[in-house]
């Protein structure tokens, strides 16, 4: 297996990883969470500037930790989209520089595909066919990998907010900080998930698209109507509604496709309630479930490196003219 050096800068995490023979030699992640928390969300211009400052340091650290000579690297992988244009460009420019200096090929990686490959890092035996539930801050998608690990069929996606975006927006309503997912998960621990019945949208059979703007609005009205509300109950009930919809839609996709393996990836896949409930559901339905460890669910460059290995097998290389594609999709 080739050795890959990968760079990820699509949002607010600067990450560089070195992967050799499916082993993560290093996966350094420098998060900008504290910087953006002050603004309640990621500020694109600020994110790009910090990537510019951090990337050379993260790069150095990744090489040091991997204890590998650069001449042993076979290819440079970089996220080309989707994501923030300025942030992506910082990573792409840096990757091009490294590829030119080392005279190695460049591989452009779709960030969404990279998230799915986090499962392959954790479960090397995983091979198509499988269904993937990808739940992140910008995307909520059901993907079918029938006979290829790099060319999925898009079965459904969110028509408005992504699941992670809903967590972030509701956390803002509850004034519990950014990013919202971990904050809501924490607050939910002391709340009653059955206290409020928030809407579970679009659960009619055959519809694999999602909608999370209704549940957010419903939380807003519930907060407005009740002055002395118990925030943990709201958080837990909201989390339950989102988790229920994600599992229901995945179940629907399994019924429609007959897939027996289910992969759950993306930042929201770090959510303990989702991990616990979807694992239980999978067991009850005789399905195999693949959820990477939490640190591989959120943005990191190791998943980009792993995606690059399969792209290389397919001779899918990028030219040095490759640029950022902020709206890249499948
Ligand atoms: O995949 P990711 O790191 O970045 C994107 O590609 O978007 O996902 C970030 C999203 C954020 O919306 C964050 O609130 C959510 O994942 N998230 C969680 C948890 N950890 C991160 N949502 C629910 N529970 C969590 N524990
Ligand atoms: Zn991501």
TrEMBL record:
Spans through the membrane: none
Residues reported to bind Fe cation: 111, 115, 299
Keyword Hydrolase: yes
Cofactor requirements of the protein: Fe(2+)
Pfam families: TsaD
HAMAP family attached to this UniProt entry: TsaD
Function recorded in the entry: Required for the formation of a threonylcarbamoyl group on adenosine at position 37 (t(6)A37) in tRNAs that read codons beginning with adenine. Is involved in the transfer of the threonylcarbamoyl moiety of threonylcarbamoyl-AMP (TC-AMP) to the N6 group of A37, together with TsaE and TsaB. TsaD likely plays a direct catalytic role in this reaction.
PANTHER family xref list: TRNA N6-ADENOSINE THREONYLCARBAMOYLTRANSFERASE (PTHR11735), TRNA N6-ADENOSINE THREONYLCARBAMOYLTRANSFERASE, MITOCHONDRIAL (PTHR11735:SF6)
Protein name: tRNA N6-adenosine threonylcarbamoyltransferase
Organism, as annotated: Pseudothermotoga lettingae (strain ATCC BAA-301 / DSM 14385 / NBRC 107922 / TMO) (Thermotoga lettingae)
């Amino acid at each position: 297996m080739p050795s890959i050096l990968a760079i990820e800068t699509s949002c607010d995490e600067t990450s560089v990883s070195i992967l050799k023979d499916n082993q993560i030699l290093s996966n350094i992640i420098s998060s900008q969470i504290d910087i953006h928390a002050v603004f309640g969300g990621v500020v694109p211009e600020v994110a790009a500037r910090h990537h510019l400052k951090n990337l050379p340091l993260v790069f150095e650290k990744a090489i040091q930790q991997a204890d590998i000579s650069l001449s042993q690297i076979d290819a440079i992988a970089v996220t080309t989209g989707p994501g923030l244009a300025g942030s992506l460009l910082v990573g792409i420019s840096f990757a091009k520089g490294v590829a030119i200096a080392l005279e190695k090929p460049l591989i452009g990686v779709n960030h969404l595909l990279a998230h799915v490959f986090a499962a392959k890092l954790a479960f090397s035996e995983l091979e198509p066919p499988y269904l993937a539930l990808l739940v992140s801050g910008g995307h909520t998608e059901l993907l079918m990998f029938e006979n290829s690990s790099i060319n999925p069929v898009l079965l459904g996606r969110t028509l408005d907010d992504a699941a992670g975006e809903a967590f972030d927006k509701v956390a803002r309503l509850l004034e519990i900080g950014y990013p919202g997912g971990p904050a809501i998960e924490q607050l939910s621990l002391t709340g009653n998930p059955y206290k409020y019945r928030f809407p579970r949208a679009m659960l009619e059979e055959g519809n694999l698209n999602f909608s999370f703007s209704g549940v957010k609005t419903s939380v807003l009205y519930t907060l407005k109507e009740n002055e002395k509300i118990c925030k943990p109950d709201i958080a837990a009930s909201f989390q339950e509604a989102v988790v229920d919809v994600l599992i229901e839609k995945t179940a629907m996709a399994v019924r429609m496709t007959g897939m027996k393996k289910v992969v759950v990836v993306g930042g929201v896949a770090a959510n303990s309630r989702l991990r616990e409930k979807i694992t239980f559901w999978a067991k009850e339905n005789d399905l195999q479930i693949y959820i990477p460890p939490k640190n591989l669910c959120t943005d990191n460059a190791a998943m980009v490196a792993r995606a690059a290995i399969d792209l290389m097998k397919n001779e899918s290389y990028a030219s040095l003219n490759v640029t950022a594609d902020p709206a890249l999709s499948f």
